[in-house]
Amino acid sequence: MSNIALYGNRHSGHSYKVKLFLALTNTPQNYQTIDLFQVRAERPALFRQHARFGEVPLLIMDGQAFVQSNAILLHLSQTLRTMDGDNSARINARIHEWLMWEQSRLGFSLPNLRFERKFKTDTDAAVLSWLEVRLRNDLDVLNTHLGGTDNFVASTAPSIADCSLAGYLYWLGDAGLSVKEWPMVQAWLGRISALDGWAHPDELMLSAAR
Amino acid sequence: MSNIALYGNRHSGHSYKVKLFLALTNTPQNYQTIDLFQVRAERPALFRQHARFGEVPLLIMDGQAFVQSNAILLHLSQTLRTMDGDNSARINARIHEWLMWEQSRLGFSLPNLRFERKFKTDTDAAVLSWLEVRLRNDLDVLNTHLGGTDNFVASTAPSIADCSLAGYLYWLGDAGLSVKEWPMVQAWLGRISALDGWAHPDELMLSAAR
């Protein structure tokens, strides 16, 4: 069995993506929290050494370091051979497309609008508006894609694309929007919440042992 | 040999990433341009059918459709087994990390600032400033990473991570910045430009036969 250490933060949906994958696949890990308000030079030595961009999450697996949440998900699913779309080339291509879409769209607009609205108070209204237009458009795209089916994002089974896209969505209220406006997204989040091992980020990111 | 059709646009660095990969690997393709100002319903039927997000680039390979530039690069490198970091797990992890970083950082800040400065005239100054701060930070990160070596981004050889990160950088001037401020980035772009098959996007994206 692989030796896995995860460095994350309770406010980071990017960390939650990885923690959620580990929870849903019942994968043991040593989870350590990083205080993002701590002076960088005072953070744990291993984190400073390996976090190439100075960001959470950081995964150390069998002595090797991996950064960028979606790249970590790719590595974990390929290595552990789980939540990988059954290794079908067709479904893998869909998973890659949604990981990339998440990275530049929903995984950009949502965390940034949430950050500006929840943790800052001096952001220019034009920036907030620009971000909110993007976020609403992204939610429209996801809502349309999910449609009226019982499917997950890339196939009938959950995959790392679902872990990724759901990363910040349980905190949509922090960004000032309600998921009720996007009922297909809401229903899909409900399907994820019903999976064995799921927990809300506010709970999961605090639990050291899970 | 695979049958490849690429739908792109001359102003799209995301299209250029894929076109550049095909040029550097001397891979024949049927290249078709999409007019992004054309009414969506009047675009070619194949494009409307397969471009899931309505965006270029779209790749049709052996009858299957692929979207999202970085996902297309992953698919091409895995299928054609070239520019894939020699299929080393360690280098592949680095490639994935840089593809994800590009997707949410440089590949976000640069095309958006370029679009607002080159193609629009009514963008709020606060939005331009917010984007420029991000772009300058992203260029600092890449410049530091490249350092004083002769390396490419993920290893000593060029990979799809280089195609991706270089996508918009030959147009940095359109965003109002000069690459001279980031000399390691400038030198690395020079190394890419020296590769067999390279051409500037203004030339490559026009040539139907290449």
Structure commentary:
The structure is a homodimer of 210-residue chains. In chain A, helix 1 runs antiparallel to helix 7. The model of chain A has no long low-confidence stretch (mean pLDDT 93). The first copy, chain A, is built from 9 helices and 4 strands, in the order E-H-E-H-E-E-H-H-H-H-H-H-H. With 210 residues, the first copy, chain A, is of the alpha+beta class. In chain A, 49% of the residues lie in helices and 8% in strands. Chain A folds into 2 domains: 4-83 and 197-204, Glutaredoxin (3-Layer(aba) Sandwich); 86-193, Glutathione S-transferase Yfyf (Class Pi), Chain A, domain 2 (Up-down Bundle). A 4-stranded mixed sheet of chain A has the order 2-1-3-4, covered by helices on one side. Chain A has helices at residues 13-24, 45-50, 69-80, 89-104, 106-118, 125-146, 160-166, 183-193, 201-204, and strands at 4-8, 30-33, 58-61, 64-67. The interface between A and B is medium-sized, with 28 and 28 residues.
